[in-house]
Design goal:
Distance between the termini: 52 Å
Radius of gyration: 21 Å
Largest sheet: none
Strand content: under 5%
Helix content: over 70%
Structural class: mainly alpha
Order of helices and strands: HHHHHHHHHHHH
Number of strands: 0
Shape: globular
């Protein structure tokens, strides 16, 4: 029987080695996670109508008290978009920890969720029909959760829920947001790679810790270390895109200083990783799209 402490030791060795092997990428990823949570906490503080909520938010690290900011309470759609951004903050944090320890396939699963969530945020921001469908699905899912313990959830309701989910699939959302060329580059390349990490696939299975050969990821030189570095670059790309999406969702809810610092930081990330298409829709006009592409 393998002792779990031996497995844990393998994970820890990769975490130490990855920090030494990719110090700039790790430092930037940690900074991006802090940036993301700080942006969320400032949004909460700037839009809170309850003084206790605002006070609580102001105690979070790395937030500022802007001199001039729109303090209007978030409407229901904006609350949903903020919740999805916060969810991505958590998933990016989890994916980073997994990558650092060499668990690359599980990290890819989380990265796929972040990728999809950014696309859905843009869909709910830009398309009234998709947002209305999202609300209907959310309401039905809440009914299902309430009904299951009571055994009152019917097959008719389940079919209704499934039909609503199929009305706007992820593929349909992407086609509505992006030009044909951009959609194909995303769907058949970047997104496909992430999907392989989520499905029951043998793709990349030997790049995890410990591998089937009993080696750790960092022992597989150069393949293992290169794969780990590629995952850190993918994480940085998603972190920048998530922050960019946040700015487009809440263009008037942050201070100018905070907005400018986020734009400067995403520009710093983009200069440090291979060139990639922005997840900002190229068929929609958004506040920061043009500026972001100029910074690229």
């Amino acid at each position: 029987m393998i002792d779990y402490r031996d497995l844990e030791g393998a994970y820890n060795r990769v975490a130490v080695a990855s920090a030494k092997g990719f110090p700039k990428e790790c430092a930037m990823m940690e900074e991006s996670i802090a940036f993301s949570f700080s942006a969320y906490y400032e949004l909460v503080k700037n839009t809170a109508t309850n003084p206790d909520t605002a006070k609580s938010a102001s105690t979070k690290p790395n937030t500022t008290n802007p001199a001039s900011t729109n303090t209007t309470k978030l409407d229901e759609r904006s609350q949903s978009l903020a919740a999805l951004f916060y969810r991505n903050c958590v998933y990016l944090s989890a994916a980073y920890r997994l990558v650092r320890e060499g668990m690359l396939d599980p990290a890819g699963n989380n990265m796929r969720t972040v990728f999809e969530t950014i696309v859905w945020q843009y869909a709910y921001l830009c398309d009234e029909g998709m947002y209305a469908n999202f609300k209907e699905v959310s309401d039905l899912e809440a009914q299902k959760l309430d009904s299951l313990p009571k055994k009152s959830w019917s097959n008719t309701k389940e079919r209704e829920l499934e039909n609503m989910r199929r009305k706007y699939s992820f593929q349909k959302a992407m086609k509505a947001l992006y030009s044909k060329e951009t959609y194909e580059k995303f769907f058949f390349s970047q997104y496909w790679m992430l999907c392989q990490k989520s499905h029951s696939s043998m793709f990349g299975v030997n790049y995890n810790t410990p591998t089937m050969e009993g080696k750790t990821t960092m022992d597989k030189v150069p393949e293992g270390s290169e794969e780990l570095g590629s995952n850190l670059s993918a994480l940085l790309y998603l972190a920048a895109e998530s922050l960019h999406c946040f700015l487009n969702c809440f263009p008037d809810k942050l201070s100018k200083d905070n907005t400018d610092s986020i734009l400067a930081f995403t520009n710093k990330i983009n200069k440090s990783i291979p060139p990639s298409l922005s997840l900002a829709p190229d068929t929609k006009e958004l506040p920061f799209t043009a500026r972001f592409r100029e910074l690229d």
